[in-house]
Amino acid sequence: MLPTYSLSSRVFFYFLFCGFTFMGFAVDSQFLFAQNAAISDVEDGNSDSVPLPAEAKTAEELFEFIDGLGEMEPEGKSDEEVIVHQRKIFRTARNAADKILTMDITDDQAVEATFYKLQAMQYLRELGEPGAAEQFSKAIDVAVSDHRPKVTEIGMKFKIEMGFNMWGKLNDAQRNEVVDALIQFILKGTPDESKLQMITSVVEYIGDAGGAAQAKRLLDAAIPLFENAQNPELQEYVPALKGMARRMALPGNPIVLEGTLLDGSQFDWSSYRGKVVLVDFWATWCGPCLAEIPNMLKLYEQYHDKGFDVVGISLDSKREDTENTIKEMGIPWVTLFNHEETQRGWDHPIAAYYGIQGIPRAILVDQQGNVVTMLARGPNLERQLKRLLGEPQAGVDASDSSQAVEAAKPVVNE
Predict the structure, then answer these.
(1) Ranges of CATH 3.40.30.10 domains, the chain
(2) Distance CA 83, CA 61 (A)
(3) Does the pLDDT of residue 252 top 50, yes or no?
(4) Which of 11, 143, 251, 275 is least buried, going by the fewest C-beta atoms within 10 A?
């Protein structure tokens, strides 16, 4: 599995942020949003904070002070009073972190203080603090330009996250700016596992959010860096990165499929030309894959006679698992399965060639053989088929069974 990034945080953030989700900024009902209060309408002077203790002379003493902030209770229980209290606590955490950053501290302390500061400012923005958005953006830029690599990395992670949360609202030029900033950071210094995980996470996210072109550009910039890495373990990931780059180049272009079917015969991709084809990477151990099959069966029945077909690519390790599931679920389309034991699962040649990192991965190909979408699941598959082939065949049950599968999370390569 690709390496993951983690940063230890203190009791304060586990306590105070227990109702938030870091990427989505969702807030639990005990904090604010479950009620009807308008956060932007809450006024509290915009400057109130807990005074920093005069006796706190060191970074560790100020960190301990931050820890204690989580134990403070709001003066009242109304939505407005809770909002005022939360803003006060986050301002105080930001102020304490600012003071720590003026001290003679270690790099690790600088990383922790920067994380506290940016996290506090992030939630001040979400809590409607006037001017917080601009201040948060400037603080991120300061962190990104810091001379300490680990601090720069923290700033870049917040910058990327901010771009992610706005991705759907950005135009192409703005999206390119976000990716350009990441490329600049990736190319700065030496490649490492943290950068590798950052790249793959960004690519999978924006690739599925309409940013395949930007994702490929990021990969094209990063691959030479890892090809020339001094660490041979990092070089081992280059084929996967190249595969992801091929996949990100698929929209609007042909997909290459070849291999053997379950019965050992050769698969003939050319025989599907002129059809709309769903290429489905799946496995019997993948819950979301199995949950999607009833929707695929329904649409296959409705559109098969109009020119729709499916090609399954099994990532199972055992052929009998695939065969049994096909029989049990009544799957009528062909399934590719590699008969070399060393080339099964995530190592299936086609999965490796396109850097498949999670399943189901459902790729829809039009009549000209070009990829239409790489998210052909649930209602989106039905919408695309209607667009390409018109209304479903008359007389076939069109009851909607696709709504329940759209939110199913894919199984990732571990």
Answers:
(1) 269-412
(2) 27
(3) yes
(4) 11
* Domain 269-412, CATH homologous superfamily name and number: Glutaredoxin (3.40.30.10)
Distance of CA 292 to the CA centre of its chain: 21
Choice between 322 and 405, residue whose per-residue pLDDT is larger: 322
The predicted-structure confidence for 133-191, as pLDDT tens digits, reads as follows: 999 999 999 999 999 988 998 998 888 888 878 888 899 999 998 899 889 888 987 89
Q: How far apart are CA 200 and CA 204, in angstroms?
A: 6
**C-beta of residue 360 within 8 angstroms of C-beta of residue 282:** yes
Asked if residue 33 has pLDDT above 50, the reply is no
Q: Print the SS3 string covering the chain.
A: CCCCCCCCCCHHHHHHCCCECCCCCCECCCCCCCCCCCHHHCCCCCCCCCCCCCCCCCHHHHHHHHHHHCCCCCCCCCHHHHHHHHHHHHHHHHHHHHHHHCCCCCHHHHHHHHHHHHHHHHHHHHCCCCCHHHHHHHHHHHHHCCCCHHHHHHHHHHHHHHHHHHHHHCCHHHHHHHHHHHHHHHHCCCCCHHHHHHHHHHHHHHHCCCCHHHHHHHHHHHHHHHHCCCCHHHHCCHHHHHHHHHHHCCECCECCCCCEECCCCECCHHHHCCCEEEEEEECCCCHHHHHHHHHHHHHHHHHHHHCEEEEEEECCCCHHHHHHHHHHHCCCCEEECCCCHHHCHHHCHHHHHCCCCEECEEEEECCCCEEEECCCCHHHHHHHHHHHHCCCCCCCCCCCCCHHHCCCCCEECC
Amino acid making up residue 269:
W
C-alpha radius of gyration, the chain, whole number: 25
Q: State percent of the chain over pLDDT 70.
A: 84
Q: Which tens digit of pLDDT belongs to each residue from 96-110? A: 999 999 999 999 999
pTM summary value: 0.75
DSSP labels, 355-412:
T--EE-EEEEE-TTSBEEES---HHHHHHHHHHHH-SPPTTS------GGGTTPPPEE
Contact status, residue 122 vs residue 97, Cβ threshold 8 Å: no
Place of tokens 């065969």: 323
Which among 148, 122, 147, 146 has a CA at the least distance from the CA of 135? 122
